[in-house]
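re: ur question from the group chat, yeah i did fold both. here u go
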Amino acid sequence: MLNLSLNHLYRPAKPGQAQPWLLVLMHGVGSNEQDLFGLAPYVPANFQVLSLRAPHVMGPGSYAWFAFGVLPSGERAINEAQEAASRQQLTQVIASAAAQLDIPPERVVVGGFSQGGIMALSLLLTQPELMHAAMVMHSRLLGQITPLVVPPVRLEGKQLWVSHGTLDQVLPLANAHAIRAAVQALPIDLHYAEFPSAHEITRDELAQAMQWLAGLAA
């Protein structure tokens, strides 16, 4: 059993893997660790899967990494203290999980959907030593993170998956375009993909994301 400060679900890699990887997953607003753990059967067999529950309770079985509100302009205002605290806690949890499982950072991938993807992207850009890659689905880049991005030299060789739905009305496609523009100025190997979908992970998107994961660990 893993000893972590966040509630979680864990699936080991298939037995006999010489150098297993670790995929850490973070859910979106109003969900919990069960959500993305449903992807585990599709994750390559040489990956251990860890799905985390966000610390802030919204209701029964409903959690968030930070609270937010929508301004009259349509922009989102976040609880910056909660976001910073969650990011710090995630830094500790991911490092602890990797250490307990004896997985070096170069075999760690941090991923998430929606607000979980926000956290994954923020961690890649501010704590790249934690991981080799991030998988960001239907998400956005927080403006608060931009001043905190590490010097480009620390991002060299990092990998990033970004996917989004062209029909996403929760986080419109422009958010993915903004991530792409920001990352293209950095020495990150970006795999960007759009799908004719709403705020959801489709079968085609999942299949392509898992193929990308398998390629990392090949």
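okk and heres the other one u asked abt
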Amino acid sequence: MIDVNRKGQVWVFAEQHRGRLDDTPLELMSKARHLADTLGVQLGALLLGDRVSNLTDKLIHYGADVVYLAEHPLLGAYQTNSYAQVICDLIHKHKPQIVIYGATVVGRDLAPRIASAVKAGLTADCTDLQIGDHKLAKTGEVLQNLLFQIRPAFGGNIIATIINPQRWPQMATVREGVMPMPEPDVKRKGHVVKESVKLSPQELPLDILQEHTRPRKVDLKVARIIVAGGAGVGSKDNFKLVWDLANCLGAAPAATRAAVDLGFIDHDHQVGQTGTTVRPSLYIAVGISGAIQHQAGMAQSQKIIAINNDPDAPIFHIAHYRILGDLNKVVPRMIRAIKEKAIKD
């Protein structure tokens, strides 16, 4: 049965690792704050871990009205079973109408398990979330204030809007970097609800003996200038041109999925639908055709310069400045011009 009168809160899963909040849940707070305000409900943050109460103030400063704090030694290291059990218990107890997760490795693992357990729908890898009304075709009934879950579909060739009117809570994972990071307000006030957690070692299928993590080689989300190369660069050796141009500009080197798959550069540098979403002041696309999957990750750049020898390349449709020519000639000239200007200055 469709519950059109549900007035539960909007929740964000506040993913943390080793006592440090990830950027993704903080990015989601801005969108979640807008959703909660539109619905006229409170914004809640779910914080699970061991001795992580020091993070509650930060979540409040970024927009949370309520932080649900679940602390337990067995929540110190992420495991699907323990985290899913605790969150499912909290969903049954507090009955939120929307729960949002980051489309991180943890979020993509955790959200489907919870959706299955609470028998709710889940839309993965959303790029936008809105509140809207939907008219049922059979009855003509208008369902108000549903979560519109917006994401690329069919290989990025269309943008789909998905709704879940019959199962609650409405849940979605949201891609990293697609929401702007909000400015914290250190004067904001909220409250913390300490939840009791009942877990035993027998309920966890794994014993974590050691944990090894590798930091990303580059943080593209904070880069002001990005120089990205595509399959059109031609080879890993030729990709050095991208590195050289990036070094001249103090920029971050990046790539399309095709360039990563060809081994030109590693996945940490990938921009696009299956990589990082970026919004730099300047994005230089070198040998990139501009498939919609790549555009999904960089189209919001303030200025885009595209270098390509194909006048019909899709990247030219969104570029602010278009350079039609051989990148092997254009890029070295750009590097020389930048170095000469640096010497003069």
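fwiw on the second one: The first strand starts at residue 10 and ends at 13. The chain is about 30% helix and 25% strand. idk if thats what u expected
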